[in-house]
């Protein structure tokens, strides 16, 4: 038998349950993997709650994008025993990696050269930040990038990638509680929203110009301030809607800010050429140590999945939440 995390209704972390099921058999274009660690993501919490851009199929919905493990049923390019990570290139309506032995598309696999916790933490965060900042945004040395929700896994990845390229990362956080951690993560400057005026502070840090690029997963009414904090002719990348409110179009067109939405699955993970470049970029950063996922906490096993999801949504963490899978 295999263990799988499922849910039958929409709701909070408590709707998740672990069930014993027959070991799944892969079909055409699929592979079975033994999962050693899973990385939790906000997308999965939104999916579980019914707030994601696609809805789960209930009851018995699978969940999870990101895992590290070992191939059990070998296929071309990935023989049995190959250490792999999964990329978020599939729909959770079709697949989910929260389990100890799961089936995923072969196209979602990437060879793993790091430990399982790192392998379950790095790809979605760093591929999202790379695709938005580099492929879509064209970030260059000397550019300034304003990063909101900077203590998230993707936020930390964006800080690292900006530094890797010689750009200047300005981290935004709600309170001063995470300031020192963000500085330690590589932020050149930190703006705390409870005590500083975002627009005034960013303008001061950039000589009055504003940030070359702004990278935001929150959306909502705060986008108006983000436009004002972005340089004339700059870019504002929205890659999420954590605020849960409607995002109004900004009224100040004089700033000529280009605003675009970013989805990693369609833009990089399912685009062969961009994905190839992303893999080389991230693997190079892992080799030389400039890119490394920040892991906030590692839970012991699938039986901790409810507690792990509650921690994910607590907003107290800095970086990724990981769950090991015991066999």
Query: What characteristic shape results from the CA principal axes?
Result: globular
- What class would the helix/strand composition place it in? alpha/beta
CATH level-4 homologous superfamily of the largest domain: Medium-chain alcohol dehydrogenases, catalytic domain
Rg value: 20 Å
DSSP strand content: 25-35%
Our count of helices gives 10
Kindly report the average pLDDT value: 95
Tell me the quaternary state: single chain
Keywords: NADP, Oxidoreductase
GO molecular function, one term: NADPH binding
InterPro entries: ADH-like_C (IPR013149), ADH-like_N (IPR013154), ER (IPR020843), GroES-like_sf (IPR011032), NAD(P)-bd_dom_sf (IPR036291)
Protein name: NADPH:quinone reductase-like Zn-dependent oxidoreductase
Can you walk through the features of this model?
This protein has 327 residues and is α/β, with parallel strands linked by helices. It has ten helices and 15 strands. It folds into two domains: 2-122 and 293-324, Quinone Oxidoreductase, Chain A, domain 1; 124-266, Rossmann fold (3-Layer(aba) Sandwich), CATH 3.40.50.720. It is 28% helix and 25% strand. The strands form three sheets. Strands 3, 4, 5, 6, 7, 14 and 15 form a seven-stranded mixed β-sheet that branches. It has a six-stranded parallel β-sheet with strand order 10-9-8-11-12-13, with helices on both faces. Strands 1-2 form a two-stranded antiparallel ribbon. Strand 9 (168-173), helix 5 (179-184) and strand 10 form a beta-alpha-beta unit. Helix 3 (123-136) crosses helix 4 (153-165), helix 3 (123-136) crosses helix 9 and helix 6 (198-205) packs parallel to helix 7 (223-229). Residues 11-323 form the Enoyl reductase (ER) domain. It comes from Amycolatopsis thermoflava.
């Amino acid at each position: 038998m295999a263990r799988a995390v499922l849910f039958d209704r929409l709701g909070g972390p408590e709707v998740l349950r672990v069930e014993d099921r027959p070991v799944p058999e892969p079909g055409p274009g699929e592979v079975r993997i033994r999962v050693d660690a899973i990385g939790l993501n906000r997308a999965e919490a939104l999916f579980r709650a019914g707030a994601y851009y696609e809805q789960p199929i209930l009851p018995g919905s699978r969940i999870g994008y990101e895992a590290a493990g070992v191939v059990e049923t070998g296929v071309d390019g990935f023989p049995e025993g190959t250490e792999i990570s999964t990329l978020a290139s599939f729909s959770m309506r079709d697949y989910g990696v929260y389990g100890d032995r799961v089936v995923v598309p072969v196209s979602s696999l990437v060879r793993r050269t790091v430990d399982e916790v790192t392998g379950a933490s790095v790809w979605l965060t760093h591929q999202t930040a790379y695709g938005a900042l580099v492929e879509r945004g064209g970030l260059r040395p000397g550019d300034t990038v304003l990063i909101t929700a900077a203590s998230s896994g993707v936020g930390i990845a964006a800080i690292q990638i900006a530094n890797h390229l010689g750009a200047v990362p300005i981290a935004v956080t709600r309170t001063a509680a995470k300031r020192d951690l963000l500085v330690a993560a590589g932020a050149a400057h930190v703006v705390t929203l409870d005590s500083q005026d975002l627009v005034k502070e960013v303008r001061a840090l950039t000589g009055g110009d504003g940030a070359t690029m702004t990278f935001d997963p929150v959306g909502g009414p705060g986008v108006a301030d983000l436009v004002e904090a972005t340089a004339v002719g700059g870019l504002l990348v929205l890659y999420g809607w954590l605020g849960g409110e409607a995002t109004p179009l900004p009224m100040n067109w004089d700033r000529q800010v280009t605003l675009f939405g970013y989805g990693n699955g369609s833009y990089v993970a399912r685009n062969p050429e961009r994905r190839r470049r992303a893999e080389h970029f991230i693997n190079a950063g892992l080799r030389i140590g400039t890119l490394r996922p920040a892991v906030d906490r590692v839970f012991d096993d699938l039986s901790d999945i409810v507690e792990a999801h509650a921690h994910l949504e607590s907003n107290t963490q800095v970086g990724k939440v990981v769950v090991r899978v015991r066999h």
